[in-house]
Design a protein that fits this description.
Radius of gyration: 18 Å
Strand content: 5-15%
Low-confidence stretches: none
Helix content: over 70%
Order of helices and strands: HHHHEEHHHH
Strand order of the largest sheet: 1-2
Distance between the termini: 23 Å
Number of strands: 2
Number of domains: 1
Structural class: mainly alpha
Shape: elongated
Length: about 160
């Protein structure tokens, strides 16, 4: 397998994953039925009942959403951070692998991922079963920063 393919294929795979998942309806991605089967709901409900905040104009709390939807919210938003962080890491890896300096690799990776997040949320805004949110772009941007920080740590450690 060529070096270029090893650097490009995972990046393209993550881009396709984001594209496909953002075209799916909420119902197609709903994992609440799986989460409801896990034991320990009384403990988790007691643990998380004091947590309440607003996200996208909606109150996020166990009382308002129920425990399963509350947990699913954190999983969904955590995936935003993880997947866009992975995208930034893989883009940094590609650029750095082709001898682009660290600053340019970091800057381009961050700007590309933020731009991609904006485009993704705009696409979701026009999808009938989705809602594009600027708050998700903020999460995606945070994920991009984490991905780049991890890449910097990883490559510094490797050298």
């Amino acid at each position: 397998m060529s070096r270029t393919f090893r650097l490009v294929a995972p990046l393209v795979g993550v881009i396709i994953l984001i594209f496909v998942s953002s075209t799916m309806s909420y119902e197609q991605q709903d994992i609440r039925s799986v989460l409801s089967q896990f034991p320990g709901s009384e403990f988790l409900e007691t643990l998380f009942s004091p947590v309440a905040f607003t996200y996208g104009g909606r109150l996020i709390s166990v009382d308002n959403l129920g425990l399963v939807t509350f947990i699913e919210f954190f999983i969904r938003k955590g995936m935003h951070v993880f997947v866009f962080g992975l995208l930034a890491f893989l883009l940094f890896r590609l650029l750095y692998g082709f001898n682009v300096n660290v600053f340019r690799s970091s800057l381009f990776s961050f700007l590309f991922v933020v731009g991609f997040a904006v485009i993704d949320e705009v696409r979701q805004f026009f999808h009938p079963d989705r809602s594009g949110m600027w708050q998700d772009v903020v999460l995606d941007s945070f994920g991009a920063m984490l991905g780049i920080v991890f890449a910097l740590w990883f490559y510094k450690r490797k050298e």
